[in-house]
From TrEMBL:
<comment type="similarity">
    <text>Belongs to the AccA family.</text>
</comment>
<keyword id="KW-0067">ATP-binding</keyword>
<keyword id="KW-0808">Transferase</keyword>
<comment type="subunit">
    <text>Acetyl-CoA carboxylase is a heterohexamer composed of biotin carboxyl carrier protein (AccB), biotin carboxylase (AccC) and two subunits each of ACCase subunit alpha (AccA) and ACCase subunit beta (AccD).</text>
</comment>
<comment type="function">
    <text>Component of the acetyl coenzyme A carboxylase (ACC) complex. First, biotin carboxylase catalyzes the carboxylation of biotin on its carrier protein (BCCP) and then the CO(2) group is transferred by the carboxyltransferase to acetyl-CoA to form malonyl-CoA.</text>
</comment>
<comment type="pathway">
    <text>Lipid metabolism; malonyl-CoA biosynthesis; malonyl-CoA from acetyl-CoA: step 1/1.</text>
</comment>
<dbReference type="InterPro" id="IPR011763">
    <property type="entry name" value="COA_CT_C"/>
</dbReference>
<dbReference type="GO" id="GO:0003989">
    <property type="term" value="F:acetyl-CoA carboxylase activity"/>
</dbReference>
<keyword id="KW-0547">Nucleotide-binding</keyword>
<dbReference type="InterPro" id="IPR029045">
    <property type="entry name" value="ClpP/crotonase-like_dom_sf"/>
</dbReference>
<dbReference type="InterPro" id="IPR001095">
    <property type="entry name" value="Acetyl_CoA_COase_a_su"/>
</dbReference>
<keyword id="KW-0444">Lipid biosynthesis</keyword>
<protein>
    <recommendedName>
        <fullName>Acetyl-coenzyme A carboxylase carboxyl transferase subunit alpha</fullName>
        <ecNumber>2.1.3.15</ecNumber>
    </recommendedName>
</protein>
<keyword id="KW-0443">Lipid metabolism</keyword>
<dbReference type="GO" id="GO:0016740">
    <property type="term" value="F:transferase activity"/>
</dbReference>
<keyword id="KW-0436">Ligase</keyword>
<keyword id="KW-0276">Fatty acid metabolism</keyword>
Amino acid sequence: MEQTLPFEKPLIELQAKIAELKSVTESADIDFTEEIKHLETKFETLQKEIYSNLEPWDRVQIARHTMRPTSLDYIHAIFDDFIELHGDRNYGDDEALIGGIASIDGQAVTVIGHQRGKATKENIRRNFGMPHPEGYRKALRLMKQAEKFNRPIICFVDTKGAYPGKAAEERGQSEAIARNLVEMAGLTVPVLSVVIGEGGSGGALGISVANRIYMLENSTFSVISPEGAASILWKDASLAKDAAEAMRITAPNLKEMAVIDEIIPEVLGGAHKNPEEQAEFVAVSIRQGLQDFKDFSKEQLVNQRYDKFRAIGSFEQ
């Protein structure tokens, strides 16, 4: 059964009524054609009204939707000849953070992304999209390889955060993320990052130090989850909705504050409603980004990235 979100309840009820009238029309000698047309028009109007007036907490729920397209979904839809590469050449392979070589319009690129599952078994295999340090070290290995062969880097961000377990800390979780931040800042090839779902904490930032950061319309990007923030600020995780509002973690908020560079529109109802069409929207932005940075020199790429992050935030006397 497809996951339904609380704010979608009026739409679900209306859909059920339409289905009921269609069933009666087909099985009985009663014509409800006009009533069905009226309800379908009402459904379309209500759908547009709901999705054009989403609150931050609504967007959080869409970003967490179990059927929302993952990094691999976008990679297979947008790129050609994807070859996944494994391991950090130190400890092992982390399936929560995947990467490899691909091409787009004949241009070789390196693609990296958090990978979560859509069902319980796959989520366990992917550690719910929360990488261990070997995941970030694998990502860095692929980035340095891309730099060596002058390949642009495209990253897909979709994680609640880096895995906070004891084993991850023992293997240097914080150091692995910090090293990625330092190394990414100095990469001499174009780096594009796309937040496709949840962008949580340092786990997201570990592949987000980019020349251009995109966010899908209903994705989130924050230092902590709304539940975590509510627990710290008000000692009550049930106030997550209020925290989501106060934290300004949605794409429109972050674009306004210049934390991100561009919002990628989503299909009506969220990316999970039509993954193929959504991939086309993402592909347009990626192609434009590659074109924009095509003629930048190595020094210009590093300076642009430096200036971009230095400009975030404001100071008051």
